[in-house]
User: Fold these one by one.
Assistant:
Number 1:
Amino acid sequence: MHVLADRAGLSSGYVSLLERGAYSDLRCETVVGLAEALGVTLDWLVLGRGDEPAWTASDDAAPSVYFAQADGKAGLIKIGFSSRPKHRVRQLLTGSAQVVLLCAVPGSKDDERALHKRFASARVHGEWFNPVPELLELITQAKGAA
């Protein structure tokens, strides 16, 4: 939520209210800012039709292990596998939780399982892990290699 607010030039509180449906009459500038921040067209944001959003584009289609973080730098990190990591992370957005794709690297389900095993001591639930220093270092290295 905070990242979206920053990108759209809005306050986090305002975006939180938007997510909860508190406003139904938005200024045009607000809608344009949200569309730009999300990387979608106005048609797609308002009507759910039109140009396909960038995060669902076919160039994102490659088997990858991805790292996504919830609710800012202190949030839990998901280690997942998807052939469309940008699209998958978008699916994770629920309620007021903000999930950001940190990076994606070519990989397989076996690679994902190996990482889950490697960081088992940091696992909170499912595929979500505490942002321990070793995991953050791995992500930093993966970003540099990508």
Number 2:
Amino acid sequence: MIGFRVLFTRLLPRASAIVLLLAALAMLLSCSGRKTSDEKKNVSPVAQSSPKLQPFTPVPPTPVRAPVASQGDCAPRYANGGKGTCINNQPCRGFGVRVENGSALCTCFGRDGGCKEGQRCDVLRLACVPEKEPPWGRGHSD
């Protein structure tokens, strides 16, 4: 019985250390299969062909127009609690601006007439977004 105890307490830790050392050595040898510098593909930092450029089509700028205040009580209410504007006694899903002839026009960042039904004008995205989408980039509440 004493011989088994000596074997278990002294030789087993040494044997496990030797097994771990051999496993580590085997892993290192398996990683040595890398290509040498002669086998590497020659790569040049300079392109062999010129870039293919496509012509730029300029977009006409949106005219700068003076804002017009909402007047009346016809402004639409959105599902998220927000409110549109009332321009020329018509509901506007956007905001009012003064055009060249002096009249007021409903618009949403270049989209004359404002947003469609079920949409609202978003000041962060500068575009029409779904009406139920939360404002200010917030996520949907669960």
Number 3:
Amino acid sequence: MPTVSIQLRTRRPADLGVTPGTTTITRRRTELLRRVANLIRGGAADVHSDSEYCIQYSSADPSVACGGLAISSGSGTVGGTVNGVACTATWATSDTNSAGLVAAAINASTNALVAGLVSATNLVATVTAATVVAGDWVDVCGVRFEATTGTPANTYSGRALNTFDRSGTNTQTATALAAAVNNSPVVSRYIYAVSAAAVVYLFARQSVFSGTVTFSWPTANGAPPNTLTSNGSTLSLSGAALAAGAFVGICSAAEGVQGNQCTLAASGTGVTTINSNARLVGGTGLAVLSIVDDA
């Protein structure tokens, strides 16, 4: 699906929250879009012509760049290096608990190379592809992803939404399923997928953090259900929902090829990168040059 990104610099603060003057965006859905539309109208009517805007457009399907870490029999200081910045925690209690600590450390980083550029979670589930045939399916958050043979028919910018090609190897099928999840207009707002061999790791893009280690599925603002089902063993699931696991998912803050610049390396005993990539991968969209002007 095509993507338009608009950045608008205005004289007055934007009122995007319930409490005027705060920087927290608490409005959602139609009300939030209405507020943004009012900002754009105000910029267009600016008599001083100092409401600068930057517009980017891309016909490519937008996806976040993503990757992850796995912890198995960890000990000592564990974690990773994100954009050259060490983001670690001391292993404690279990690999799952420690993965939550590492994710929290990434999100709490104040380093300019990390803060605001990536987010992390250990809320995860896996789908394993094994000789998938056409018509097999997996439901993610109530949205069905169905296997097809060959390249799916064109939809929008050349992809068929929520379908994936199963005609290659199990690894290729997993790669295709991950791409379908990351390109889904509904699911990709809440989940991103990282594939490695025949396994697709589903991580929560939006999650609620409490305490020092606990990530949970959001329940407000129209979030879909945290549910996973499939039609059988060819697409086997780790569970019926995303849950805390011994993996750390890391994704760019927004869709676009820019997120592919973020480097990632494992650090510590028992820690590896999920797909052996040295960077976040899969970021697409907004690859064209932007137009900068004023009203």
